[in-house]
Amino acid sequence: MPRGHCHRHGAQFGPCSCSLGRLSRLVEPAVLYLLASGQARYGYELLDLLREEAMTDSEIDAGVVYRTLQQVERAGCVVSDWEPGHGGPKRHVYRITELGRTHLADWTTVLQRRAEQMLSFVERCRPLLAEPGIAATGPDERS
Q1: CA–CA dist 109, 130 (Å, integer)
Q2: CB–CB of 15/43 below 8 Å?
Q3: Which of 1, 3, 9, 5 is nearest to 140 (CA)?
Q4: Is 95:60 a contact under the CB 8 Å cutoff?
Q5: What is the sign, positive or negative, of the torsion defined by CA atoms of 8, 22, 16, 5?
Q6: Which residue has the higher pLDDT, 21 or 78?
Q7: In which element (H, E) is residue 114 found?
Q8: What's the whole-model pTM score?
Q9: Does domain 24-131 have CATH number 1.10.10.10?
């Protein structure tokens, strides 16, 4: 796995292997959510909003977003059309389908289970981090 500096740990901690920044698969449920909620309809809107919704600390690459859109469209979860741009070229506009809503519901179930497992893991780790000499700080508490 490539190692780099994440914004959470910075260069002072050296190369980081934390995988939270590499969860590009979690772009899919965020894309489906944004389409289902009507907050976004085309690629650039999705890209802007995904930074807040994608459950990752890393920068989201536009290529990942467009590959995800292609995958969910091929799977029948999303349909797209071309729409005239506002003073520019046509835009690819996406809509979620009923199958996409079902897939989003499946993602929600999976993410709920993962969240519970992660929380359980964190709770098991906390007593270990309370031992002398081990800092138990959150990501935003490090300087």
Answers
A1: 32
A2: no
A3: 9
A4: no
A5: negative
A6: 78
A7: helix 98-129
A8: 0.73
A9: yes
Per 3-state DSSP, the chain is made up of helix, strand and coil in percentages (nearest 5) of: 55, 10, 35
Can you tell me whether residue 45 is helix, strand or coil? helix
- Let me know if 35 is exposed, middle or buried by CB neighbors in 10 A (0-12, 13-18, 19+): buried
Residue 42 has a pLDDT of: 87
* Average pLDDT score over the chain: 80
Q: What is the pLDDT of residues 46-79, one digit of tens each?
A: 988 987 876 776 778 889 899 999 999 999 999 9
Domain boundaries, the chain: 24-131
Residue among 99, 85, 102 nearest 45 (CA): 85
The beta strand positions in the chain, using DSSP E, are 78-83, 91-96
Query: Which two three-digit tokens encode residue 33?
Result: 């959510």
